[in-house]
Amino acid sequence: MIFIFLASVLVAGVAAAWLMQRWLPHGFVQYRDAFTRTAQNRLGEFFLFLDPASLWQANLLVCAAVFIVITVLSASPGLALAAAAVMLAAPRWALVYLRKRRQTRFDEQLPDLLLALSGALRAGSGVQAALRHIVPQAPVPLSQEFGLVLREQRMGVSFEQALSNLYARMPSEGAGLVVSSLKIALHNGGNLAETLERIAATLRSRIQLHARVGALTSQGRLQAWIMACLPLALALVLDRLDPQTMALLWHTPAGWAVLAIVGVLELVGVLLIRRIVDIQV
């Protein structure tokens, strides 16, 4: 039975090595292309015009540095490889987080713009003229997005198409309501000032409701972070108390397999908890 088990492990290891040798270069090239494409698109949304190839090279250098430092400090190639993999994926996660945060700030600033635009319309100003006076005084990112709308219009793009481009960059419900109301006013007319005031009131109520839901679900999100950090903290404490026993976990293939399984289970648990507390309003 032991011979059969060892033979099975050997066959599985050879198969895994063959698959990695066959598919790893192809997967690396695909991830590099996806990284550069995503960086180019997302950084353009942030009005940051950097070279995606240079960012990819810098990311590889950071991953190599992290791998070397973790290997020297812990003498565990498996742990160093996992840390390098996390650093390789970290920029894309950071871009997604920053994009979501920027869109949230845009939605929070939108009601003030709508009230200012409504006041300008009641004073007799046109929509585009009012935007030219209001947008330079607005905070970022609102001033950037509506400033781009005005610049596109000066370059010959129709106002309706510029609004559609705005919604493509900021696909939120608030931006959709504003774009739709402005388009309808361009074609059919109507009391646009009153419509903008109602949209502003609706968006303010929605933001307050989101804040209340976030406060009520903050305990669940904190539990997710504690659940994710507790095993790592416990492993570090046990490594200080009994380093000889914990060395089996850090420096053996079986220990690396256990760490990989624990990491996957922790990730699944965190994702499930975040899914539960992510209440759509």
Provide tags for this entry:
single chain; 281 residues
Polypeptide structure, described:
By secondary structure, this protein is mostly helical. Among the domains are: 108-212, no CATH class; 217-281, no CATH class. It has eleven helices and no strands. It has helices at 2-45, 52-74, 77-122, 127-134, 142-154, 159-169, 173-188, 192-216, 218-241, 243-250, 253-277. The longest helix is centred in the middle third of the chain and has 46 residues, at 77-122. The protein is elongated. The N and C termini lie far apart (57 Å). The relative contact order is 0.06.
Structural class: mainly alpha
Between the first and last Cα atoms, what is the distance in angstroms? 57 Å
Tally of DSSP helical segments: 11
Provide mean pLDDT, rounded: 78
* Oligomerization: single chain
Coarse morphology = elongated
Unreliable runs, pLDDT <50, ≥5 residues? 9-21
The whole-angstrom Rg is 26 Å
Report the order of strands and helices: HHHHHHHHHHH
Main beta sheet: strand number and arrangement?
Answer: none
Fold topology:
Elements: H1 2-45, H2 52-74, H3 77-122, H4 127-134, H5 142-154, H6 159-169, H7 173-188, H8 192-216, H9 218-241, H10 243-250, H11 253-277
Helix pairs in contact: 1-2, 1-3, 2-3, 3-4, 3-8, 5-6, 6-7, 7-8, 9-10, 9-11
Give a summary of the structure in a few sentences.
With 281 residues, this protein is mostly helical. The chain has helices spanning 2-45, 52-74, 77-122, 127-134, 142-154, 159-169, 173-188, 192-216, 218-241, 243-250, 253-277. It has eleven helices and no strands.
